[in-house]
Amino acid sequence: MTGTATTSKAAAASPPVAADLAHLPVPTNYVDRTMARMKLLPPITVSNFASNVNWGNTFFLVAPPALAIWGFCTIPLLRQTAIFSVLYYFFTGLGITAGYHRLWSHRSYNASKFVEVLLALAGAGSVQGSIKWWCRGHRAHHRYTDTKLDPYSANEGFFSSHIGWIIFKPRGQIGASDVSDLTRNWIVKYQHKYYGPIALFMAFVVPTLITGLGWGDYLGGFLFAGCARLVFVHHSTFAVNSFAHMFGEHTYDNKHSPRDNFLTSLVTFGEGYHNFHHQFPMDFRNAIRWYQYDPTKWLISAFSTLGLASHLKRFPDNEIQKGKYTMQLEKLQTDNGNIKWPKRDLPVVSWENFQPDAKERSLIAIHGFIHDCSSFIEDHPGGAHLIKKAIGTDATAAFFGGVYDHSNAAHNILGMMRVGILDGGMEVESLKFKKRRDSVAYQSDSEASTCSDDDSLVSESDIQAIVEDIQATVREYENKHPIHQPSAYVPIPYVLPLPASERIAIIKAKPELLPSVASRVSSPVPTRPASPVL
């Protein structure tokens, strides 16, 4: 019994072996570790539905639209009330975008106390929580975008990211975020402490009093400037969390879901350029082009001009362009995979073999490439006779402006007709190389190195003339190299049969020789491959 008990205790105290833990996922980052330690609420079901609804938030999401609909059906909407409702929509909406969002959440500029009080009151009129509460959630949203710690993650679906996160209690805690800077601001502290009365006063009492005292429309002010306006402010702000994370362009980055959405910008005073904002959150702008709609940016700039705001933060334009350039490159690479380009593994064909084959296959040499134009003869915009006339010839000069200076599209079409590379480049160069090959004896490098100066097959003046001829030929070829399409690189397989001492002397005496020319003079003689036949 004692031995059994001891064994049982030892087994209980021993740590689990690796095989026992193999089925468990290993947390790899902060989000995974936090979620592993977090105690989550059970899923929402029919039986626990009522207990999981945040009824206070739900009331302010349901009552205003219901009252607004009743108002539209029962009383007339006065023109003055309609105009004031739109203006008050801008006032309270900008309290969120210029105040809650860009000033307090991201500290993208500094504002005077007058502006801070004004924006704190306007933001409260949008009934979206206190500054401290709103910023705490928004900073968590940026820090944990698209994760389980994101309070309104787009990965949870459209409804959840739009209003579901407000209606239902979260299954777990949202990610941690630092709001210590806000606790030191007396305006933020006061608004947070008395948020309820301030929000009701700014959202409903102020518009009712202004319309009532102004033109006697108390009820219209409450229903339209109060309730209907609040519905638009709510859902325009919520659209940034839903629409701007699911629809639009990844202009600067596609690692996360935020997108640039112009339509969302129209109803959120410029907040719809959300891909830019998530990449450069501390920039006081959301739209950086003069023609882009961003009233919040304009308001902040106006505050700065009036001396009511300062230290407007901008990300360096160079870094912004890097992000945009990266996404453009990625798109080009994606498009490149769907484009057919000219073949690269082409045979090298001599001029002697090219000419007889050209008459059978309608081959034309242009810029060192051999093209099969048989399928294009009748479709040539300049007429079939020009193609037929060029068959079996080098039409480089004609193609590059001699007859017509062809467009980039023509170059691309021509490139798809390539079937070979002309040995030595263009016809003239090929003939020059052939003439040089016939005039200069061909011998191995080992034999050349054993020859004495007197045994050299050419005189010093001949050497100088040949070297200058090679240099001029290469420069002429490179000067004629067009920028429209790449040319094939075909090395010249001919080396001057000179003793080693003379080859070195030529290079030392002519330091201005191109590296390629110097290598042809000093390199060993290669074995000439036979030219393939097309």
UniProtKB/TrEMBL annotation:
Residues 357-423 form the Cytochrome b5 heme-binding domain. It is an enzyme of class 1 (oxidoreductase). Keywords: Electron transport, Fatty acid biosynthesis, Fatty acid metabolism, Heme, Iron, Lipid biosynthesis, Lipid metabolism, Membrane, Metal-binding, Oxidoreductase, Transmembrane, Transmembrane helix, Transport. It is a multi-pass membrane protein. The keyword Transport applies. It is found in: Membrane. Gene3D superfamilies: Cytochrome b5-like heme/steroid binding domain (3.10.120.10). It holds the Pfam family FA_desaturase. The keyword Nucleotidyltransferase does not apply. One of its GO terms (biological process) is unsaturated fatty acid biosynthetic process. Its EC number is 1.14.19.1. This is stearoyl-CoA 9-desaturase. It comes from Vanrija pseudolonga. The lineage of its organism: Eukaryota, Fungi, Dikarya, Basidiomycota, Agaricomycotina. The gene is OLE1_2.
